[in-house]
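Input chain follows. Return structure tokens only.
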Amino acid sequence: MLRGDPHQRRRLEEIIRNLGDRIEEARANGWLGEVQGLQISFDAARNKLASLDRLTRNRNRTPVSLGMPIISGEVR
């Protein structure tokens, strides 16, 4: 699975808006097969956006120091 580029977030939002408009148009014209195909793409794009948001949140976290492990029997 490819990771999205956080800098491309606006483009992905634009794609989602466009797909939503196309779904509305297909419903208005009764193109049910087209609606189904567009809905799959719409859902995938929204999932990609959610994944991008998770990636961005996780990148902003600071590392936690766990210290050095102590192995029993080890001479200090």
